[in-house]
């Protein structure tokens, strides 16, 4: 196998350069860095971290090279230096790939006075000062600033420097621009006045989201075309911020973005340790074959923005390593070239070296799983960005339950429900895909008719793609139910009664009822179905003397059926994903896991037994599989920063052996040694000893 340096040399300055850009250092300069920072320190960081790519601040708000573009502000500390160009040259001498960073979200007074049309306008008609630094102005991302001025900056950088790409940060704008130009163009396209607030039910707001998507995807195409006209192998790489890609025209991304960058730099508030890996799954949900970089900050990611601070070493490693587990390439960012606190260097180097160790095995394989959770972009678009986290609770609950259940799974975007994409999976899960078009419903129905299994909950398919309530579920025939009424709630003190003897009701010995949801839909089964759980009609929660059920259980709370096509369907007409995410009741986790295992209809391809919490990722090729096992076991799993790593005890991994194959070798990639295994009933049982952070079990077939 070629070593990494030789691979980089082979792809330098070719259209495939990004394929060997797998470990990124990003240095975001501050204005006084030209006088104060030490370039030798950063060149040493490139080497210690085995970085094969670098992203360096070049221009936009501040230029760190001697720009000749009018009104392109050059750092007043630059003098006769070119700190951007000097580090580009140093990186190229190390055979590194190089990307220039631009940040076009603000401008200085001289540019604002000469070109007031470049400044974003508030709803009251005043030009917008920067919210954090009022001495400068926020730019209008939807007008000439991004389509006339910034293309000149981009062309200057790509023409003058030996780089592979331009990366733009904060280029998408900051809310609605109320300039006369934006108002006129928006009205010409959609006929509405600009919306005054973010309201998912306002047609003008929904139209503005579409207009913004149209304008920004045009910017991607324009900048990329300008770059390729000068340097054909290079690309424009926009920072996509989130990971679901719902804000962009997918066809433009397909044509212009050879790889994608997720800007989710660390945990914030009560965020789970698996969140980094979820970013990778959400990108793969739409673009399964496109490389993805995960930006990780060395500091805490909280609203108070301590951008020059350093978080705990274990927290840094948690984020980078979980990204590595799920196929995200490592990228760390440091704001300010001056380094008063160097405690981040060693954990970043350790994480990057760990990724370098597992890359040779993982890079030739593709993610695989029997289960997919549908990423509901059509539904989430109807929520204002600041409220979208509430809508995502349904999906996050199912995600966490599957992690706890140790069931490998992928995400699949509802924007790409093709036959090939769906048929990769044995089971698909719709946690609350309330908004689905007729075409999307038809694709899911056809998948079930081909033998696929489905699990759905709450409002799934009850609304059309525009958010309008249907009189009946779009997938009523698939669920085997008829809509009666709802949703109803919030309802307190609700319960479900176990009913009959069904695998979905297993594991509740000693209980006749469990906690219910808080938002309920009333349905009636209309085909041959089982009802493992029934609603207990709700009753008062106070006074305490009144807290008892008045009626016998009635109404289906879980519906399960054989489809007759080789698959199975489960429908749960209440908010199980959302309420599990809020409460984390073990009975709800068990119900989700039972439903998934029953819908699979067989033993899962991978079964792991042992203590602790593990985040898993499964990859395969013709020669074998690679199972990544990431140790999430930590008292701070739900809230960072993690103080200490707790090594995981040994695990027993049982893997289904493909027909016609036998096991050639079982190898522990991180430990770099063979693993003991035995064969039983068509499966390989492998003993994986203690896992410190990450282990990759590589099984090869013969």
Automatic annotation (TrEMBL):
Pfam (any one): GHL6
User: Which keywords does the record carry?
Assistant: Plasmid
- Gene3D superfamilies the record matches: 3.40.50.880, Glycosidases
Protein name, please? Family 10 glycosylhydrolase
Native source species: Neorhizobium petrolearium
């Amino acid at each position: 196998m070629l070593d990494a340096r030789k691979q980089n040399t082979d792809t330098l300055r070719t259209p495939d350069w990004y394929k060997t850009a797998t470990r990124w250092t990003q240095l975001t300069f501050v204005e006084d860095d030209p006088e104060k920072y030490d370039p030798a320190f950063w060149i040493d960081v490139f080497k210690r971290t085995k970085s094969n790519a670098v992203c360096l601040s070049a221009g936009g708000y501040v230029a760190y090279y001697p720009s000749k573009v009018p009104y392109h502000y050059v750092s007043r500390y630059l003098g006769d230096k070119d700190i951007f160009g000097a580090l580009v040259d140093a990186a190229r001498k190390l055979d590194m790939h190089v990307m220039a960073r631009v940040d076009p979200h603000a401008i200085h007074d001289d540019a604002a006075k000469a070109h007031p049309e470049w400044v974003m306008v508030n709803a009251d008609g005043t030009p917008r000062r920067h919210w954090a630094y009022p001495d400068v102005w926020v730019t209008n991302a939807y007008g000439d600033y991004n389509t006339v001025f910034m293309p000149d900056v981009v062309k200057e950088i790509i023409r003058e420097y030996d780089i592979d790409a331009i990366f733009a940060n904060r280029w998408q704008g900051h809310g609605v621009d109320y300039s006369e130009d934006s108002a006129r163009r928006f009205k010409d396209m959609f006929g509405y006045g600009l919306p005054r607030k973010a309201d998912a039910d306002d047609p003008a707001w929904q139209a503005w989201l579409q207009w913004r998507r149209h304008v920004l995807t045009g910017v991607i195409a324009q900048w990329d075309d300008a770059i390729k006209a000068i340097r054909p192998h290079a690309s424009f790489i926009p920072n996509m911020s989130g990971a679901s890609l719902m804000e962009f025209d997918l066809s433009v991304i397909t044509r212009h973005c050879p790889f994608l960058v997720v800007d989710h730099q660390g945990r914030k508030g009560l965020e789970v340790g698996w969140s980094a890996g979820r970013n990778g799954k959400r990108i793969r949900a739409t673009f399964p074959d496109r490389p993805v970089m995960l930006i990780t900050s060395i500091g805490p990611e909280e609203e108070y923005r301590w951008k020059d601070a350093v978080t705990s070493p274990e927290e840094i490693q948690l984020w980078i390593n979980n990204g590595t587990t799920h196929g995200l390439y490592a990228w760390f960012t440091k704001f300010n070239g001056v380094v008063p606190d160097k405690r981040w260097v060693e954990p970043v180097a350790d994480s990057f070296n760990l990724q370098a160790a597992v890359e040779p095995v993982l890079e030739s394989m593709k993610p695989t799983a029997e289960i997919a959770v549908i990423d509901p972009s059509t539904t989430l678009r109807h929520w204002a960005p600041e409220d979208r986290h509430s809508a995502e609770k349904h999906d996050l609950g199912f995600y966490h339950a599957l992690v706890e259940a140790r069931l490998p799974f992928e995400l699949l975007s509802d924007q790409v429900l093709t036959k090939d994409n769906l048929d990769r999976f044995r089971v698909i899960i719709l946690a609350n895909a309330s908004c689905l078009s007729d075409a999307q419903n038809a694709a899911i129905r056809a998948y079930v008719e081909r033998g696929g299994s489905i699990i759905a909950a709450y409002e799934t398919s009850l609304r059309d793609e525009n958010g309008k309530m249907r009189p009946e579920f779009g997938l009523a025939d698939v669920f085997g139910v008829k809509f009666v009424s709802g949703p109803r709630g919030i309802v307190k003190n609700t319960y479900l009664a176990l009913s009959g003897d069904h695998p979905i009701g297993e594991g509740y010995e000693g209980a006749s009822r469990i906690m219910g949801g808080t938002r309920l839909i009333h349905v009636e089964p209309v085909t041959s179905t089982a009802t493992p759980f029934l609603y207990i009609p709700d009753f008062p929660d106070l006074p305490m003397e009144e807290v008892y059920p008045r009626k016998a259980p009635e109404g289906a709370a879980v519906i399960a059926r054989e489809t007759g096509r080789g698959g199975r369907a489960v429908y749960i007409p209440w908010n199980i994903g959302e309420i599990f995410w809020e409460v984390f009741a073990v009975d709800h986790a068990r119900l989700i896991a039972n439903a998934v295992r029953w819908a699979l209809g067989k033993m899962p391809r991978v079964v792991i037994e042992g203590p602790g919490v593990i985040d898993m990722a499964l990859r395969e090729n013709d020669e074998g599989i690679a199972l990544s096992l990431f140790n999430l076991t930590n008292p701070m799993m739900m809230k960072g920063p993690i103080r200490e790593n707790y090594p995981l005890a040994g695990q027993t991994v049982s893997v289904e052996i493909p027909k016609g194959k036998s096991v050639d070798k079982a190898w522990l990639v991180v430990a770099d040694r063979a693993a003991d295994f035995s064969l039983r009933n068509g499966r390989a049982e492998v003993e994986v000893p203690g896992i410190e952070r990450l282990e990759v079990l590589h099984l090869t077939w013969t």
